[in-house]
Amino acid sequence: VWAPLLPLYYRAFAWPAHARIWLRATYVWWIMLLITGWIIFLPGILNRFKFTDGLVGHSLMAMAGFVTTLLILIMVVLLDRDDGIFRSTWAFWAWQLGTFTYVVIMFYAGWIEGADPAFTIVPGPLHNAIYWLRLFTGIAMTAASINWLWYSSRSLRAHASPESEPQHAHKQSTVGALS
Predict the structure, then answer these.
(1) CB-based contacts of 112: which residues, under 8 Å, 6+ apart?
(2) Quick one: pLDDT at residue 168?
(3) Which of 2, 68, 119, 160 is the most exposed place for a label (fewest CB within 10 A)?
(4) pTM for this model (two decimals)
(5) What span, in angstroms and rounded, lies between the C-alpha atoms of 151 and 145?
């Protein structure tokens, strides 16, 4: 009953325009977590998914999908002057699609692994293709993270520049005495 009420509750708030994409992404990940979490715990499915890559995918959905998106949403709203750190469209989609693709392929690998535990141990074309795709999704997510790190460090340097610091009389007299 409460699941559909939360998005309605959050609609009552005035969100900054640049935070809305992160808000929608948070909803999507949250809804996917609810649905897949319920499905995974159905009889027969849980027994096949236990201790497989499928649960790795579900935990990545929770952490890299939902929690990361929620934390970035909170930072965008609280900092409000995010200086464009999280406004990069390509980084947003690289992270979201990379995470989604990773989750899907891990669910698929987990499903196969549940029926054939040797799938993750014995190399084969499908096994190798899944792990190569996993590598590429990781590269996309790393590129998005590097983008955010780059812009946040630029923002910190811009706000810590000497021009933005107040000048005190004793600093100027000390500099004059030393030179």
Answers:
(1) 119, 126
(2) 53
(3) 2
(4) 0.82
(5) 10
